[in-house]
Design brief:
By secondary structure, the chain is of the alpha/beta class. The chain has one domain: Aldolase class I (TIM Barrel), CATH 3.20.20.70. 41% of the residues lie in helices and 12% in strands. An 8-stranded mixed beta sheet has the order 5-6-7-8-1-9-10-11. Strand 3, helix 5 and strand 4 form a beta-alpha-beta unit. Helix 9 packs parallel to helix 10. The longest helix is centred in the middle third of the chain and has 18 residues. Bound molecules: ligand V47 and iron/sulfur cluster (SF4). The site of iron/sulfur cluster has 10 residues, from loops.
Length: 388
């Protein structure tokens, strides 16, 4: 729920932001039109100050990160022609198409000795059904029993349900029994019908994406959520999207974190159509999306920045714009690198610590459910483990 906080109104120069700042500071819920005003305001510093105050009321100076590893087991996808923003997917016979064998998955999983979470997402592959993922999760848990499995977007879950002629609930129960712990937040894109029909025409509809998460939450499977911004969506579309996420969170409380995803325009149809290749989102819009997420989603504890998408430096600055969580060490990211991300494919633990400390914040290593593993609060850089 919303947490009241103190704000220094003299730091907010846009008069349109002041009443919203007073409302948010009093712990009152922001309306959709407040959200639109936040997005439209040119006062990025005022917005940042407001989001930072809201964030610090919840988390003080602590910033979480997790030691995770991304694994993308298949890029074969039946929606390859209709998700025009995607650079990653291939048709089954297309050059570059791949589907990992179990041995390849296990070899990739073994590459990083210090990992606490596998983040597994891929394409909608007709040959990667329930049995493929059950075998994968069982094999991963047998080899790495302590590692959390965050896998399969709502879109992938619905695809498995369709090809196996099962209900979403049955698929989730079967995958949980095989080792699935939580769901990642992808596949949400932007919920607006008009946007979806332009960028992801045949993708799971908004209500169905929400419903997969609702069913997961009901089963006790927590999940994340995202919004892909910076393509054809309007400010109103963004707020409609955030309103739907906020409403489901009111209902279930099952979302762990919100992650805005910056659209990357290289090597995909949408980037060509918009004439945007080589032009990513702006730092200004990246910060705004994170700050508005913090203020509008008053029932979310965590707002996560994905440094791979917005650069480590924007992620670092965002720690003063409402963000309390940084995507972790991420070994070998593929989806955004295919789409033009120029950031590294992984980050060493020391570099994550350096970024967080450089922003004057205290790094806290967490597990996938936000339990504290260790806090790096020693003046000499030493860490202290959480009390058992
Ligand atoms: O749904 C695809 C996005 C998502 C592009 O839950 C693109 O912790 C930008 O689910 N430009 C999948 N984005 C990734 C995902 C995710 C990522 C980080 C953290 C978490 C989490 C989940 O990737 C897709 C889509 O929205 N995507 N193509 C592109 N060209
Ligand atoms: Fe397939 Fe996901 Fe890419 Fe769409 S975004 S083509 S569903 S991999």
């Amino acid at each position: 729920m919303a947490v009241p906080f103190e704000v220094d109104l003299s730091l907010i120069t846009d008069p349109a932001l002041r009443p919203i700042a007073e409302k948010a500071a009093a712990g009152e819920r922001l309306s959709p039109s407040d959200g639109v005003t936040l997005f439209r305001s040119p006062d990025i510093v005022g917005l940042g100050h407001l989001a930072d105050a809201a964030n610090r009321a919840r988390h003080g100076t602590r910033v979480y990160f997790a030691a995770n590893q991304h694994i993308n087991p298949t890029n074969v996808c039946i929606l390859r022609k209709t998700c025009v923003f995607c650079s990653y997917a291939r048709l089954p016979k297309e050059e570059g198409a791949y589907r990992y064998t179990m041995e390849q998955v296990y070899a990739e999983a073994a590459a990083n000795p210090y990992v606490r979470e596998f983040h597994i997402v891929g394409g909608l592959d007709m040959h990667a059904g329930l049995a493929y993922y059950q075998e994968m999760f069982r094999g991963l848990k047998a080899r790495h029993p302590q590692v959390h499995i965050k896998a399969l977007t709502a879109v992938e879950i619905a695809h498995i349900a369709r090809i196996e002629k099962m209900s979403v609930e049955e698929v989730l129960i079967a995958l949980r029994e095989a080792g699935l712990d939580t769901l990642p937040g992808g596949g949400a894109e932007v919920f607006s019908k008009a946007v979806r029909s332009t960028i992801a025409d045949r993708k799971l509809a908004a209500e169905d994406w929400i419903n997969v998460h609702r069913i997961a939450h009901r089963l006790g499977i927590r999940s994340n959520c995202t919004m892909l911004y910076g393509h054809v969506e309007t400010i109103e579309d963004r707020i409609e999207h955030l309103s739907m996420l906020r409403a489901l969170q009111d209902e279930t409380g099952g979302f762990l974190t919100y992650i805005p995803l910056a659209y990357h325009p290289d090597h995909n149809e949408l980037g060509k159509t918009l004439g945007r290749e080589g032009t990513a989102t702006s730092g200004y819009d990246d910060l705004r999306n994170l700050a508005v997420g913090r203020l509008f989603l008053d029932n979310f504890d965590h707002i996560k920045t994905h440094w791979i998408m917005v650069t480590p430096f924007i992620s670092q600055i965002s720690l003063h714009f409402g963000v309390n969580d940084m995507e972790g060490t991420v070994v070998r990211e593929k989806i955004y690198h295919e789409a033009g991300a120029r950031t590294a494919q992984g980050m060493a633990l020391e570099d994550v610590l350096k970024l967080i400390r450089g922003a004057g914040r205290v790094p806290v290593e967490r597990d996938s459910l936000y339990n504290v593993i260790r806090t790096f609060d020693g003046a000499d850089g030493a860490s202290s483990a959480a009390a058992a």
